[in-house]
Amino acid sequence: MSAGSRVTSPRSSVRRGESPIATGTRRIDFLLLAVAISGVSFSAPLIAATAAPALAIAFWRNAMAVGALSPFVLLRGRAELRGMGRRAVLLSMAAGAILALHFGLWLPSLSMTSVASSTALVTTTPVWTTVLLRLRGRRQPGLVWAGAAVAFAGVLMVSGVDLSLSTRALAGDALALGGGIAAAGYVLLGSEVRRTVSTAAYTFVCYATTAVALLVVCLLSGVSLGGGYTGQTWLKLAALTVAAQLLGHSLINRVVHGLGPSVTSTAILLETPGAALIAALWLGQTPPVAAYPALLVILAGLVLVIRAERNTPKPLPEPGV
Q1: Taking a C-beta distance cutoff of 8 angstroms, is the pair 98, 185 a contact?
Q2: pLDDT tens digit sequence for 62-83
Q3: What is the pTM of this model?
Q4: Distance (Å) of CA 61 to CA 14, 108, 148
């Protein structure tokens, strides 16, 4: 996108004065974001249904994604990799390390509490994204805070965060919440790198770092990476890689450049009702009746964040982005 397609007047909205190409690109980004949310909604149910250790699942979904991306990136995108620059590479690796932490915290929680509760807490990402942006000195419009709060209220309607006295369930809740905080750091680092780096190059470095970090953890902790896995388990790992990793996380990495971290992370809240409904149909974990109106509440919160972003002046992009 050229610099000329951005609005420079501080009083004008993103729409007013924006080129038709820019408007079309934004619409495509929203469509891709919808596909990404659909993909990540399969993540928790697939993980819960896969007979493999949580850390092994986390490793394989990233390792398989790197394997799928390698032919394209190494054969056609070597120039992009070489041209990333030291700062971009380090930030991409940091994002990969934080993504490994996200998986390392969240996946074990799925065996300790329900899919709905775990997903609800891990998708608190927009709240932490807004907080981290504020700590970095970026003042967020009140509408962003309000939208995040409304959307999170919808998440609580879906799951009714686990308030049982079960120590195991509470520990699972804590792990999922930690995973949500880690995801906020991942989204913010990704949005920074994507200002100057292509989706393919960033995703390749990020996932490779995540896979290596998780491999080290698995080896040190003695986690089985394949011994005794059935063909059905490998099939579920492949489905998880395609749906949640390649279509989910990769498309999120693609659209965060155009939509920004606030809109992108708030939209991830839609994973909660999506995962709850899939778990109900597939695993028999029936969501509460509140799951259905909660979807509308989450959408309402997302609309508030999008409106705030539309009315906030955007900085000019880096040359060549």
Answers
A1: yes
A2: 999 999 999 988 888 788 888 8
A3: 0.73
A4: 37, 15, 29
Domain boundaries, the chain: 25-308
In angstroms, the Cα distances linking 144 to 8, 54, 229 are 21, 34, 45
Poorest-pLDDT segment among 31-45, 86-100, 137-151, 180-194: 137-151
Sign of the torsion formed by the C-alpha atoms of 228, 39, 184 and 98:
positive
Cα(295)–Cα(273) distance, integer angstroms: 6
Residue bearing the bigger pLDDT, 45 or 98: 98
Quick: pLDDT tens for 10-25.
434 444 545 566 667 8
Rg (CA), the chain: 19
Phi, psi of 140 (to 5 degrees): -90, 140
| Burial class of 112 by CB neighbour count within 10 A (0 to 12, 13 to 18, 19+) | buried
The answer to whether the beta carbons of residues 51 and 43 sit under 8 Å apart is: no
Q: Which of 314, 305, 291 is CA-nearest to residue 125? A: 305
